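Hi everyone,

Forwarding the result from last night's run.
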Amino acid sequence: MSILTHGLDRPFARPARISGARKVRLRDFALGALTLLSMGSVLTALIALRTAIYVWHMHG
């Protein structure tokens, strides 16, 4: 039997439901990651602004 068609005669099993506690942990992790990425982009923007001001004053 071909590897591509093996098991297609059986119905697909539904994935297990995620428990409430695990869902809360995943949501908290996602919010923490989003916060960290946002803080990183704000810090990068501030560094770029400070560098632009420094270069502007240096050439002025």
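The chain has one domain: 17-59.

Cheers,
N.
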